[in-house]
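Our working data are protein records whose layout never changes between entries. Instead of coordinates, the fold is spelled out as a row of discrete tokens. Here is such a record, shown just as it appears in the course material:
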Amino acid sequence: AGRAERAQQVAPALAVGAAPRPSSSAKSGWWPLSAMLSHGAGLALWTALSLLQTGLGEPVRCNFTLTESKVFSRSASLQWRTLGSPCNFSLIYSSDTSGVAWCHPTRIDNTTYGCYPKDLQAGTTYNFRIVSLDGEERTVVLQTDPLPPAKFEVSEEKTTSTSLHVRWTPSSGKVTWYEMQLFDNNQKIQETQIQESASWNEHTFFNLTAGNKYNIAITAVSGEKRSPTIYTNGSTVPSPVKNINISAKTDSLLISWSHGSGNVERYQLMLMDKDNLVHNSVIDKYATSCSFHGLTPGHLYNLTIVTEAAGLRNYRWKLARTAPMEVSNLKVTNNGTLTSLKVKWQRPSGNVESYNITLFHQGTIKESRTLAPQVTETQFKDLTPGRLYQVTISCVSGELSAAKMAVGRTVPDKVGNLEVNSNGSIRSLVVSWSPPAGDWEQYRIVLFNDSVVLLNITVGKEETLYTIDDLELIPGRQYEVEVTVESGNLKNSKRSRGRTVPLAVLQLRVKHANETSLGIMWQTPVAEWEKYIISLADRDLLFIHKSLPKDAKEFTFTNLVPGRKYVATVTSISGDLKNSSSTKGRTVPAQVTSLYVANQGTTSSLFTNWTHALGGIEFYQVLLIHENVVIKNESVSSETSRYSFHSLKSGSLYSVVVTTVSGGISSRQVVVEGRTGKKSTWKLQSIF
């Protein structure tokens, strides 16, 4: 009757498209027909038919006990045992992500049955219902084991010196999260949980040691179950070196660096010249420097320092240039010019991109120019005479240069307005000049007597005048003076001639004089002269001027005026200089003429008159002599030409003497006699 009732329940369900819904009781709920057809239609149909086939008999209770329930990642194993007669069973299972599925049990022995569902989802919780034909059922909830990711790897392209990037494909089935662990030498140093994602999953570990090898473990977790742990390993990229320093020489490079953080196994240094490997050195991890030799001066190389650790490499590169060589045979010459310098050099070996040439004076840049590498000379113009310049030429190659310095001096200028004068001195010379243009250090003054050097002395640059004395120069001699402007080892000279004043003649005096001539004589001095000029002046009027040879020692002036005072001058001539000596002299005055004495009929008087003498007269001296006794001595004016004597003895004979006097010089006397008396005739007697 029970089976008939159950069959009656199943048959209408098949008719209306419904099936019993699994639950803890066989009598509760229905399954949609579509679900039965797609997932468990066979089971439902078999159950319904079984119920109908049992007919009308009294049901036998199928009591059973679950003896085994095992699950794996993709399958399950369930076994049960009946306590009585054999029964027919069905196994229905489902999860929250999949529909109903049916497993046809197999009979293991008389009392044992088993069912082994496959193609399950890993990590998924399933409801397994074991249903007997009499309505007995057991429900078992089991979760399949989660699977680890099918692919788990380190993403090298995203790995850095301090981080590791791992990625994996999502595990098949259901995963709640992934547990990841990072190991360094079997010591766990980081652990994290990553929520499950439908696509690629990834994670990055930070704060790691550069150049270190790590092991990474991943475990899929679903509910309370964990998948087997799988492992991969990876290494952080080694840190590149730091603080690369390049010390360049002309044919070598000294490379130094600082270690980066983390681990290093070795370094590899490669020096490239464009695409050509010039040097390749592998050195141990403790090294911090390396040298390359035999390089080309001034050449640009590419330096790469590779850090190797844990099978990975990192590098840092830098351009490295050897120092260029200095120019050779650098010369700075003036070519005898006052305002220009020529610079010449020879190109050095190696590479040179340009030359930087700078002209300095006392640290101040005067001119700078850049020249092409094929140029080997240049010239600086418009410079200052006598100035010392520094020329620096730098061979430039990239950012490096090699400088060489040389000095050169322009020729100093000559002094201007050089003069040598005696300034009226017979024993000294005064040298004067105006300063030259430009720079100089001192003057050198050299005095020449013909080719003999009498003086060689330097004077300060501030001087413009120098007096040459204390050398016992010879009066009247011509000397040559050279004034040299000195600047460093260069000089420029200018010469001029000068002459001391000649000495005047010595002991110039009047040798003789008469009424119309005047003779002079002198002694020659210790000096030099070329000739004499003699002159005679009368009352500041020069009326005789004559040249005499240098060996003359006397001269007579003639055709002079009697009684006249003259100034005779002898001038020593040496070049354009002269010196004079003068003496005064007077010609003898002329005597009077036509002297006449008469008593004019008196007995006590005499009267005299005369004709004036020629030439110069200061006065006349008139003497009256009686019996050789001068009884009268009178001086009368030069304007007077007569004189009278009184109180004389009558009838006595007297002599009258008239003398012309000029400058203390008397002429020859003129004498006449006369006698007093009453009546007498006088006539000229004689002239002494």
In short: Helices lie at 2-16, 33-53. The first strand starts at residue 18 and ends at 19.
